[in-house]
Amino acid sequence: MDLLVAPELLAGLDHLLAGVGFQRVAALGHGSHRFYFRYVPDEDLWIKLDIVSDIRFGKFQELRTPLAAGCLRRRVALGPLWLPEARDQAWLQLLHLVLDKGEIAADRIPAARSAATVASAGDPVATYLDGKLGEGTAQNLLDMLNSGNFSDVPAAAARIRTQWTDPALPPRLIRMVNSALRRVGPRLKGRGPVVGVLAPDGAGKTTLLNGLRSHCPLPSAYVYMGLWSSSPHDRWLQKIPGGFLTRKVIRIFRSGLLARYQSVRGRVVLLDRLALDTLLPGSQSASPWGAATDALARRFQPRPDLVLILDAPGDLMFARKGEHSPQKLEEWRNAYLELAEQIPTSSILDAGQPASAVRRKASALLWDIISRSGPERVAGGDPLPLHLWMLLDWRFLLPVAKPERLGYGGRISSDAVAALNLLDPAARRIRAGDRPDEFDVVLLSEPDTGVFRDAVASLRPGGWMCIQVRRTFRPGPGPNTLAGWKQALARSGFEDVAVYWHVPSLERPARFVPTSSSSAVRDTLAHYSSVRFGKAKAAAGRLALNLGLFNIAAAEGTVVGRRAPEADYEESA
Q1: What are 427-486's pLDDT values in tens digits?
Q2: Is residue 138 a contact partner of residue 130, using CB atoms and an 8 Å limit?
Q3: Rg of the chain over CA atoms, in angstroms?
Q4: Distance (Å, rounded) from C-alpha 246 to C-alpha 250?
C-alpha cells in the first residue's frame, strides 16, 4: 500500500505505526520512501506500507517535484480513505509508468488507457510538466497514449529524463548517489534476530528455511552451520594429519562470523543446523581435540533468539529422504525433544503437517520475536491499538469530532502520547512561548499552574481544554481537586465548564458521570456500593453530594471548558 503524508508527520510516524504493530525496515537510496511491515498470523498475510513525503519520479527517485503539497491539498475522501483527486491520480499513474518504469508493459496498458482518458492538459500536474519541460509536453504525452503508440514510450521517457533539470541537485548526481546507497540493502532497526532449525534428516529443515525466506519480505540471510558436511576436497584432507579438524575450526569461525555480520546488518538470520547438535547423545567427540572444537562451536555460534525443533515420526522422515532407518530416526527424534527442554528459546513444530502449515506457524513465531524486540515497541507490549484508543475516551466529552491541532501537557505517559498520535499524528507537547491560537484542543494531565498558563496561551479562542485530575491533599503549585480546576478555568475566561467523575479510574473509566447531575451521581454510587468498602464510600459520596461538595470529594475526573471567543474573551479581560 502506497501512502503520501505531509513532511511534518514524519517525526512521530515510527512510533505511531509501532503502536498498531508495524516494524520499520530502513532502506537507503530510496528518496523519501519509508517501508513498514506487519505479519497477520490468522490470515498468513504480510502487509507492507510504502510511505513517502514528496513526489519523485525515475528509477532512483532522481526527478524531484514540488507536487506533493498540492496533491495533499486537493485530496478527496472516499469513505474512511483519503485518495488523490481523480486528475492527480491519473497523472501520477501515467508518470509512474512512463518515468519510473520507462515503458508500459502489456498488462499495464488498460491502466494507462484509463488514466489517459481522465487526465487533461489543463490539470495542475500537466501545468507543472509544461512549465518544467516546455509548452505542450503534457498534451504530447496524452496524445501518444490515447493513440495507442505505446512503443514510443521508452524514447519519450528518455527524452524527458534528459531534459529534466534541477538547480539544487542534478538528477544524474541523485541517481548515482541513490544507486550506490541501495547496495547497502534494506535492514531492520537494531540487530536482526537469529533463528535456528534443529531436526533429524527428513524432517524438512531446508524446506522450512527456504519457505521462510521466500515468504517473508523482511531482509534475511541463510547461513549453513554444518561442521562435518562432505566436500570435494575430502580425499585430499584425509591425507593431511589434522586436516578434517582444521576444516572444522575454519567452518566454525566462517559460519559464526557470517551469521553475526548478517545480524549486525539488520537481517533475519536463518541458521540451518546449530552447534547444539553436539549435545545430542552419541554426538560428542571422543578425542580431546574434537571435544574442544565442539565447545568452541557452541561458544562462537551466535545465540539464537528462536530455535525451531521439527518433530516428525521416524518412519515419515525415512519415507521422505530414505536415509538411516526409521528406528534410528525415531531415536534422534526423541533426543531432539529432550534437547528442546534445555533450550529456553526453543519451540517444537509438528513437522508431520503440510510444509505450508509448518512454515505458517514458524512465521508467526518469527514475527513475535521481531515485534517484541523492535526498538520502537510501544510501552505496554500490546501491538494492537485497542488499549491506546481506550486512553482517548475523554474525547467523547467534547463536541469536537476530530481536532485538527492537538496539544498536550502535564504527566502524560508514553502510552497516552502514542494514543494522542493515533488521534492526531502531529500532536505535540505544549512549550512555553508557543504562539497563540496554536491548538484547537488541549489535554492536560495533573498539570501545575505553569503548564496550565502556557496551555491557555496556546489555545485558540473557541478551542477546548480537557484537564485530567486526581484529588490530592499534598500542597502543590495548582488546585488539588476537581472543584479547584473548575474555578481555575472559569477565572481564565472559559465557558461551558463541566466536571466529569471517572468510575472506576482515570485511565480505564467505565463511566463518565457529570457531577452536575445529582441523579447520575446517585445512580453510580448505588451501582458501585457492592465493591469493597463500597457502602461506606457510597454513603460518604451521598453526603458530599447533599452538601454540594462532591467536586471536592471525587477522587478522579476530568474538567472540560471552552475558551471564550475572541470578542467575549477581550470583554471579560
Answers
A1: 889 887 777 778 999 999 999 888 999 999 999 999 999 999 999 877 777 898 999 999
A2: yes
A3: 32
A4: 6
Query: For the segment 14-59, what is each residue's pLDDT rounded down to a tens digit?
Result: 888 888 889 999 999 999 999 999 999 888 999 999 999 999 999 9
Inter-CA distances, 146 with 86, 101, 112, Å: 18, 19, 9
**Angle in degrees, 0-180, between the axes of helices 153-163 and 137-146, rounded to the nearest 10:** 170
Query: CA 89, CA 267: separation in Å to the nearest integer?
Result: 35
CB 431 within 8 A of CB 22: no
Q: φ, ψ for residue 329 (rounded to 5)?
A: -65, -35
Residue with cell 466529552: 397
* AA identity, residue 319: A
Considering only CA atoms, which of 87, 24, 70 is closest in space to residue 51?
24
The three grid cell numbers given for residue 422, joined into one nine-digit string: 493515533
Q: Which helix (H) or strand (E) holds 294?
A: helix 288-300
The 8-class DSSP code of residue 120 comes to -
The DSSP bridge pattern shows strands 56-57 and 63-64 to be antiparallel
The 10 Å Cβ neighbour count of residue 436 is 11
Amino acid identity at 87: R
Write the single-letter amino acid at 517. Answer: S
Please identify which residue in the block is written with the cell numbers 463511566: 511
34-40/23-26 β-pairing: antiparallel
Dihedral, 128, 130, 136, 141 alpha carbons, nearest 10:
-60
DSSP state of 384: S
Residue type, 523: D
